[in-house]
Amino acid sequence: MDKTARIKELVKILNEASKAYYQEDTEIMSNFEYDKLYDELLALEEETGLVLSGSPTSKVGYEILSELPKERHPEPMLSLDKTKSVDDLSVWLNGRKGVMSWKLDGLTVVLTYEGGKLVKAVTRGNGEIGEVITNNAKVFANVPQKITFKNPLTIRGEAIITYTDFEKINQTIEDVESKYKNPRNLCSGTVRQLNNEITAKRNVHFFAFSMLDSGDADVDKTVNSRFDFLENLGFSVVEHKDVTFDNIHEVVKSFSEKIITNDFPSDGLVLSFDDIAYGRSLGRTAKFPRDSIAFKWADEEAETVLRHIEWSPSRTGLINPVAIFDTVELEGTSVSRASIHNVSIAKQLQLGIGDTIKVYKANMIIPQISENLTKSGNLNIPDECPACGSKTKLRDDNGVETLYCPNPECPAKSIKLFTHFVSRNAMNIDGLSEATLEKFLDKGFLTELYDLYHLDRFEEEIVSMEGFGRKSYDNMIASIDASRNTELTRVIYGLGILNVGHATAKLICKFFKNDIDSIINATAEDFMQIDKIGDVIAEGIVSYFADDANIRVLRKILDEVTLIEEENNAEQDLEGKTFVITGSLNNFSNRDELKKLIEDRGGKVAGSVSSKTDYLINNDLTSNSSKNKKAKDLGIPIISEEDFLKL
Description:
By secondary structure, this protein is α+β, with helices and mostly antiparallel strands. The model has no long low-confidence stretch (mean pLDDT 85).
């Protein structure tokens, strides 16, 4: 193994050991072994002059900037001409040798080294002027801090975040609308952070794809020699292959076959003449250099056939249409279902069974229909609820047509309501999945919500159920008993009142000082005095409590639980302030935790930015998200978690 490879291996091994020891409280190697490997790494770094950014021997301090300075590139960074035809690539090559590489989909960054040290990193920007991100580049996962080459060196490459890391970060964001749309958007915001500690946590990787002249004639002769030079210095370079007229179709095919399994985002390939002097001799157009050309993959859409519409009832009575189509591959996964959301959208698309449709993944996550190519419009909207057979009704909600089941005894409503009642923000009862609740309902163990507190009557039957057993039963009962000590907010939210989310339930309980009788007997006008509650929500709450059956269920639940009030001795220093939270979090396990802190200190948390918002909390300060844009338009400060904690 060469020394550069050994350095990379040691950095990986030592960092894994440090993570296990300091973050996971486990020990995967002895201190003696760690020190031995550390000393080996240090000696190799001193011998070779190569120090990777993630090396445990080099700790980069974190720094928060007020803004990113701008800087002009020494020479313009032009875009590439594009084609989607492999035959066009063959013609362009004109019988010469080329080098084909991935066109990575991240953020282009230019690194500058002087005296073997990384001294500057600048984004591509508009091609003429970019933003200086030196502090962030120093914490990229694989960028060398020091190299053996001492002459000035300028390297161009792509900063990316892998799909694996992208999914991990998005999983920490509960609000679907706030999830990052794709790895490129996440990387763009991450690389341009004002606080490089955030950048460090997001595992950004840099892959070099070109460099300016090194001053060494052999190095500067071909694209391949430059790639070899950069690899020997310790850089990761884009995967590349030699191409000629004879093998170009085969090479493009080999790249395309890897797309589904690649863990990094790419939007095509780049073909360059291997002979750098020849490429330069061709000059450039007003827009493009003539030494390289991009090959673009088709847009990530798939054509398929609509086979069925599944109408899915919910606890509120809404029956949501879901498209079922022939399975297609999108973003590396098999997709055969897509939500249509409501009847209006189904009509706008003129859907019909057997139609040829195009589907895509909204936000790289949620499958949706983008286009209906045949527009038969023969879709039949069911006049009976698929769960209970009751006659359905079409309803107009502010111009949006929806289908719903008016039957209060609909079993689908019961299943969804019980699932909602045991959920985390409601009664927080583990061990009761929707499938388990459905079995209990079918067997008659459950009829009303309060029956959950008497499941011990069916102990023998439950223990003997397939897939359950004694341990599962005991855990379930323990969780049910634990939920008996709870706050009124959880109970009110768990009832499933239309349009009453956890935040609204909390506002109601706070306004009425946790007096359940005051809540039950309040008028619509009373509820409308509460911030964020308008006439529609108020009327819905009043209508719910006007039903004696609902009050009976609530009273029975309250008989089973002991209401507690959360102690809140926090200073009320955020009173009168309204916050909106978006993006991923670093210091809090989830948004609910941050939201609770704000509310405990007298502040409010809203779901959208408005003129009443005082602060938008977003660690990605430079994001182009709709919330960031609106905050900027309204002159509302956008702050990070760290900024918030300093308030």
